[in-house]
Amino acid sequence: MERRTPITPIHAKQLTEKEGLEIVAETSPKRVFPDTAYLEAGAQVEKDLKVCDVIFGVKEIPAESFEQGKTYVFFSHVIKGQPYNMPMLKRMMEKACNLIDYECIVDDQNKRLIFFGKYAGLAGMINSLWSMGQRLKEYGYNDNAFLKIKQAQHYASLNEARQAISAAGRHIAENGLPDDLQPLTIGFTGYGNVSLGAQEIVNLLPSKEITPGQLLELKDRKKLPNNIIYKVIFKEEHISRRKNGSAFDLQDYYANPGLYENDFEQYIPHLSILMNCMYWDNRYPRIVTKKYLNELYSKGRPKLTVIGDVTCDPDGSIECTHKGTAIEDPVFVYDPETGKPAMGFKGHGILVMAVDILPSELPLDASMTFANALFPFVKAIAKADYSASYEALNLPAAIKKALILHKGKLTPRYEYINQYLIDPFHNIHP
């Protein structure tokens, strides 16, 4: 179901006509832009990319596809030493490839320049509202407003999805929510592009933003309006606390995460939907543990109904996310008592939506936005002389920062990855 492209036909036309580049699109029956659109743009369409020296992809490329000395640009997911991608990286090193990773293309302030993150948030929130509707139906709410919402992949465009969310919002505004679901609350971890995308969808519903402190005070539902959804944004200071009880300090948290522990569990019983939208690695405390979910469910069915794990780190910040899910099979119910997941909407436990290629559910809009950001760098990447030494390699600063492999060797910025190549399950992070 990967239907995105880093270079659209519109951009291919500009690159061929104005920049003098030869563009080849690998034939694809499922890409959101058909082969004919690339041919009409002046690009070639081939069954493989053997004629190309520089190859732009989206997600990981199969290890057997790499060719000697070529340059590859894609989301490689190796900078955290991800064990499942170390064989791929080793293969690229054996083939003396150059690797540029979109995730590492940043400006002087370390701000990412090319990303799909917002679309992960948009699609993730659409899917989580759809999941909420389906799960509530399992609980007997056969006429809930969220049943008006489909999975993101079934909308032709983001605009069509927005219209459907708005229609569900009007239903809530006019008819209210069932008493026993109130107050309906949605929590967002993080405040970056992913979270902003998710919030953009919730803002189409009749919603009101409150603080984490105010969430804890939403006790008496009889005094609350029945047609409002409450949204809460959680920052690092709400999720973790210093173990010794001293004040939270953000820079200290980043520098010394081992000195901190979970402080988020106090909020979980007050949430209907949790959207996990923030960066995490295994140096930091988990946000939701299996142990906590077991304790929560031992008291009966909780308010928390859906976790939209957009971050999607397997066995990570949401510990019960045992794996990323496919667009075709996007949700599972995790049973805290047995510790087992069951795909689909049925079963005892918490429903988790953990699609790991969420932007591909909105492939048209996501590809256009991504390609617009990538376009200014394409010519420089394509024309660079990669036979030069790393020091002499002429690339824009933002791209050179993102060069993980040069002629098959880790560049100075990424030499720390060597430790993961030796021991893929090493827990140290630079």
Short description:
By secondary structure, the chain is of the alpha/beta class.
Helix and strand topology:
Elements: H1 9-17, E1 24-26, H2 35-40, E2 44-46, E3 54-56, E4 71-74, H3 86-94, E5 98-101, H4 117-138, H5 158-175, E6 184-189, H6 193-202, E7 207-210, H7 212-216, E8 229-234, H8 236-239, E9 240-242, H9 250-255, E10 260-262, E11 273-276, H10 290-297, E12 306-309, E13 331-335, E14 340-343, E15 350-353, H11 363-383, H12 397-401, E16 403-406, E17 409-410, H13 418-422
Parallel strand pairs: 1-2, 3-4, 4-5, 6-8, 6-11, 7-8, 11-12, 12-15
Antiparallel strand pairs: 5-16, 9-10, 13-14, 13-15, 16-17
Please describe what this structure looks like.
The chain is α/β, with parallel strands linked by helices and 430 residues long. The chain has two domains: 9-105 and 363-422, Rossmann fold; 117-361, Rossmann fold (3-Layer(aba) Sandwich), CATH 3.40.50.720. It contains 13 helices and 17 strands. It has helices at 9-17, 35-40, 86-94, 117-138, 158-175, 193-202, 212-216, 236-239, 250-255, 290-297, 363-383, 397-401, 418-422, and strands spanning 24-26, 44-46, 54-56, 71-74, 98-101, 184-189, 207-210, 229-234, 240-242, 260-262, 273-276, 306-309, 331-335, 340-343, 350-353, 403-406, 409-410. The strands form four sheets. Strands 7-8-6-11-12-15-13-14 form an eight-stranded mixed sheet. A hairpin with a 4-residue loop joins β13 and β14. α4 (117-138) packs across α6 (193-202). It is globular, with a radius of gyration of 23 Å.
